[in-house]
């Protein structure tokens, strides 16, 4: 197993039913937050952490994601002819030249564990990251995945990005019980997928950021359908921690649950208030709206 994390898996095959009809023909990961789609925020976080291979696990209606990260010859030519140099640079620099994009089809949406398992041939014997674009994490200092990569470099084992949630919301998350080892780190002793509040081992939720050793693929092969009738990544991690250390890491930064309509709206407003081009006018508009 190599020491550096250079590959990241983006499971993007979900149907996005909570955002219908907006996602009837458009992937939920392509929903814009101000002027960038959710998946671009996730990719930028990965690139900032040193990722060089982006593995997208896609579904039948996700062509727009592939197109977004591909070269757009006609658009680039038109922008060049019109002298829109800055806009041209903006779309040309979404993916640096040294970064490779790999697209793998998940024919059936059989769960997050199944999606991650589809990346096995590309990942090989390397530790790798998994990023769920639904969770937009804003940390302007370093980035959530960058923080987790540093933890992996020190400990050389799987790392789960976690956040303390309202105990009433445990049925929406994988929940861990950890023994603290300092510096926002804990050794995971138990992980359960979407437990009822009265059965949850804690209120520490895994929120869409993982670094996993390649041993996870062996465990995914053993997992049978669990919660929701799907192959759960949580169940494979539960098997993994019986053989290897798995750490929980309470990252710095603010998470927006863009898998929910309210979380998506909050992310749009707060990112708008940070946008260099828009923030002053947008802030003035919101203040005026409140005063009406």
Automatic annotation (TrEMBL):
Nucleotidyl transferase domain residues: 12-264
Signal sequence interval, chain numbering: none
CDD domains to which the protein is assigned, alphabetical: UGPase_prokaryotic (cd02541)
Keyword Nucleotidyltransferase: yes
One GO MF term attached to the UniProt entry: UTP:glucose-1-phosphate uridylyltransferase activity
Superkingdom, natural source: Bacteria
UniProt keyword terms in alphabetical order: Nucleotidyltransferase, Transferase
GO BP of this protein: UDP-alpha-D-glucose metabolic process
Catalysis: reaction(s): alpha-D-glucose 1-phosphate + UTP + H(+) = UDP-alpha-D-glucose + diphosphate
Its EC number(s): 2.7.7.9
Enzyme type, top EC level: transferase
Similarity field: Belongs to the UDPGP type 2 family.
Function as written in the Swiss-Prot or TrEMBL entry: May play a role in stationary phase survival.
Protein name (record): UTP--glucose-1-phosphate uridylyltransferase
Lineage: Bacteria, Pseudomonadati, Pseudomonadota, Gammaproteobacteria, Methylococcales
Gene behind this protein: galU
